[in-house]
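Teaching soon. Invent one.


***
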Amino acid sequence: MTFLKPTLILPCVTDITPDWLRSHQIKGLLFDLDNTLIRPKTAVIDPPIEAWLKTIQAQGFLCAVVSNNKKHDYLKTCEALLQVPVYGFARKPSTAVFKQALEKLALQAEHAVVIGDRPLTDIWGGVRLGSKTILVDPLNKDREPWGIQRLRQMERCSIGEPLERGLP
């Protein structure tokens, strides 16, 4: 299922390096929200992720969040917390909200990377968009219900190997 195959698989967003982004002509990062940047339903960012996000932005990379979350107040809280545009109600793998974010960032899809924890939403959406994709482990993977853990295992089995191995 090549439509679910990410460009790269990493444990966490903090493992993404500016060198890898530059080597792929990436100028912008489109993140999933829950379980990628913040733990689900908490609106709290882990300090290492917060520091990494600030560093990435300081190096000139543009950032936005594209989420399937539908809670307007929660999304606004996260936008203030992260200090990046947050687009909700995305219906990923639909590309409509991804395109909206790219337009606001004045970027073409080939200069963006979609980063998320779900192959069926984030990665498939990024592939449909024409962007590079990075699959990360969910932040809450040890605390998820049994059914969600099994679903994630099935998704991971369906993607096989990433298109690239490791970071330079």
User: Anything to note?
Assistant: The CA atoms of residues 27 and 161 lie 25 Å apart. Strands lie at 8-10, 28-31, 62-66, 86-87, 112-116, 132-136. The two ends are 26 Å apart (CA to CA). The helical segments are 18-23, 47-58, 72-82, 96-105, 119-129, 146-159.
